[in-house]
Amino acid sequence: MTAYGKAVSEINGKMLTVEIRSLNSRQLDINTRMPQAFREKELEIRNDIGRVLERGKVDLAISSESEEEVAAVTINRTLAREYFREMTALAHEFSQPVDAGFISTIFRLPDVLRTESKSLDEAEWKSLKAALEQALGFADEFRINEGKLLGEDMKLRIDLITNYLEQVLPYEQNRIANLRQRFERNQEEFVSNHSNLDKFDQNRFEQEIFWYLEKLDITEEKIRLIKHCDYFIEALGSSESNGRKLGFIAQEIGREINTLGSKANDADIQKLVVQMKDELEKIKEQLGNVL
Questions:
Q1: DSSP 3-state assignment of 148?
Q2: pLDDT digits (tens, 9 = 90+) for 248-285
Q3: Is 54 helix (H, G, I), strand (E, B) or coil?
Q4: pLDDT value at position 252?
Q5: DSSP 8-state secondary structure symbol assigned to residue 53
Q6: How far is residue 156's CA from residue 253's CA, in Å, rounded to a whole number?
Q7: Nearest 10 degrees: CA dihedral of 236, 240, 243, 248?
Q8: Domain ranges in the chain?
Q9: Residues paired with 56 in a beta bridge
Q10: Between the CA atoms of 87, 90, 91 and 93, what dihedral angle is there, to the nearest 10 degrees?
């Protein structure tokens, strides 16, 4: 699920800004951008994010702004002298002049200039942690509001599936009678076209019809489909993270709808089955965004 949260905290004239963005992802993937001084707390920060957001592609940005804060810079004089000595000797060797430009060149060489970053003190960490918790709270609220909309949409589609299932009933009542008439009509045509048959066993024929019609009975599928839909609504209303459970229930709903369609042997019921599948596919798309 998508999420966004931002919080600002101020301490000792320093402004700390925490910004969190999250996109859909099956796993928790956290990308962080923060000043070097905060890196020592990165593991704890990641744990706090995982505890609240659980999964998603999360981008965390922490910035620190202060007009008075100036990083301490030191010059490694010993190393600078060695560079200068070697460069001067090389200049004399190639008959090149030694000018003041050497100094700026030396400053750009590795390890000559050192910037000492200030360590994170306890008060600053508490201020940062408070801003992080606030930003996570905003992001979580963003997700909850989005989840409510998704939940309402999925509940509507489950209601549509059960409504389509109710519409199957009148077609189902006529289906058995139509199938039986078709079997009897085909039987009469078969007997009339094969006059050399010794004897037609009417009892055996009735048994075969009964067996076949029983194989096409969809009562069990309808009962299971209703139970799965009710269970889906129940899990949807839970306060726990039920994304995977809802996905599993949706698979069971799809299995019953497919069986219903394969047994239907009726064009009108097949149309309703197609509409059920369409609603279920929309639910599955939404479940990719649910925790």
A1: helix
A2: 999 999 999 999 988 877 888 899 999 999 999 999 98
A3: coil
A4: 95
A5: H
A6: 15
A7: -70
A8: 3-68+121-143, 72-116, 145-287
A9: 28
A10: 160
Task: Please give the backbone phi and psi of residue 113, each rounded to the nearest 5 degrees, phi first.
Answer: -100, 135
pLDDT digits (tens, 9 = 90+) for 205-261: 566 655 565 667 788 889 999 999 999 999 988 877 788 889 999 999 999 999 998
DSSP code for 237? T
Tokens (6 digits) for 216: 């096409």
Q: Which CATH architecture has domain 3-68+121-143?
A: 2-Layer Sandwich (3.30)
Q: What percent of the chain has pLDDT over 70?
A: 80
Specify the amino acid at residue 291. L
Cα four-point dihedral sign 198, 204, 209, 211: negative
- Residue in the block written with tokens 């925490």: 18
Buried (b) or exposed (e) across 123-158, using 16+ Cβ within 10 A? ebbebbbebbebbbebbbebbeeebeebbeebeebb
Question: Which 8-state DSSP code applies to residue 109?
Answer: S
The one-letter code for the residue type at 64 is S
Q: What is the pTM of this model?
A: 0.63
Question: CA torsion sign, 82 to 83 to 84 to 90?
Answer: positive
